[in-house]
Write a structure and sequence with these properties.
Layout: H1 20-41, E1 47-51, E2 54-57, H2 58-89, H3 96-110, H4 116-122, H5 127-143, H6 152-162, H7 171-201
Antiparallel strand pairs: 1-2
Helix pairs in contact: 2-5, 3-5, 6-7
């Protein structure tokens, strides 16, 4: 049974759909809002600071930092990479215990009343950066181990020439102090020579 009158035809109404341009505009607005939220939540990755409403971008900051410190920082990173690559090639490693032991020694040297993190912060280091430097120093000493030898005559000559500047009083302590100074000097000389040879063999390309 039909409710339509004679002579009339029934046409089912199609559900109304927004025009395509309006739908696209709606999607674009949603995407822009989502993008804005993402950028706001991660603004620190794009904006370094805002001064009187004007942003200083990370790009500007990075450009200034690279221009001022880039070459020295890059050289430092290259040196670290060379040492670690050499250590890996020769199977030389450090352990967390070795690093922590060195940290404990250093903490004792700066005094119990000084917090290590505060001491490092005042000198522009973080604890993680300092640990990396300790790791690097341990690797270097292991790689150059056995290359520092000091004869009894060298030790005696050094004490004779530098007795006035040494702080120890007993003969045994004088020898220990002189040995530590001479060992440090020779380690440094050995490292400079070893590292220069390492750099000469390496293939390094800089792009800044």
């Amino acid at each position: 049974m039909s409710d339509t009158k004679a002579g009339e035809t029934y046409t089912a109404e199609e559900p109304a759909t927004p025009p395509r341009p309006r739908r696209r505009l709606f999607l674009v607005l949603i995407l822009l809002i989502l993008l804005g939220l993402v950028l706001y939540q991660n603004r620190g990755k794009f904006i370094a600071a805002v001064v009187n409403g004007r942003p200083i971008t990370r790009f500007e900051l990075d450009g200034r930092m690279v221009a001022r410190y880039g070459d020295a920082t890059l050289e430092e990173m290259i040196n670290e990479h060379l040492v670690k690559s050499e250590a890996q090639a020769k199977g030389v490693k450090t352990s967390p215990e070795e690093i922590n032991s060195r940290l404990e020694e250093f903490t004792k040297q700066i005094g119990e009343n000084t917090k290590l993190e505060d001491f490092l912060t005042q000198r522009g280091f973080t604890l993680e950066e300092f640990k990396k430097q300790i790791e690097l120093d341990i690797l270097v000493k292991k790689l150059t181990a056995g290359s520092v030898n000091i004869s009894d005559q060298e030790l005696a000559d050094f004490i004779s020439k530098n007795r006035a500047s040494l702080t120890a009083t007993s003969e045994a302590d004088l020898k220990n102090e002189a040995l530590e100074i001479l060992s440090s000097r020779k380690r440094n000389e050995t490292f400079q020579k070893w590292f220069q040879e390492l750099k000469n063999k390496a293939k390094v390309q800089k792009f800044i």
